Amino acid sequence: MKLKTKDICIKVLTGDEELQLQTYTHEYRNLMMLLFDKIYLEDFGECKGMGKCCTCMIEIIESESEISSLGRNEEANMQKAGVVNSKQRLSCQILVSEELHNATIKII
Ligand code: FES
């Protein structure tokens, strides 16, 4: 069975730069892997998606769709890291799906 894919465009704000990334569903395991692969980010995603290091933090500035809600581990680790802004997320816990199409995210 062939998986259906859909093009996804994401605007990424990093420091003074604004980048447009293009991907498609199932190209990457999660948003952290997409950012890690397409943008050189030092010390980003150190635990490679285990949800433990909190170095893959992003802020969802704008999105047309509701981005999947916090997983239990993500919520606990964000609290440990002192994060109180509900728009901040661990990018390794966000799937690359149509929900991200036309979203604007900021790398923290
Ligand atoms: S890569 Fe470590 S928490 Fe996301």
Q: How would you name the CATH homologous superfamily?
A: Beta-grasp domain
- Gross morphology is globular
Class of secondary structure makeup: alpha+beta
Report the CATH topology name.
Ubiquitin-like (UB roll)
> If classified by CATH, what would the architecture be?
Roll
H/E element string? EEHEHEE
Low-confidence stretches: none
The side-by-side strand order for the widest beta sheet comes to 2-1-5-3-4
User: Span from first to last CA?
Assistant: 39 Å
The overall average pLDDT, rounded, is 91
Structure description:
The protein has two helices and five strands, in the order E-E-H-E-H-E-E. The longest helix is centred in the last third of the chain and has 9 residues, at 72-80. Strands 2-1-5-3-4 form a five-stranded mixed beta sheet, covered by helices on one side. It is α+β, with helices and mostly antiparallel strands. The protein is globular and about 35 Å long. The structure holds FE2/S2 (inorganic) cluster. Residues 32, 45-56, 90, 92 line the site of FE2/S2 (inorganic) cluster.
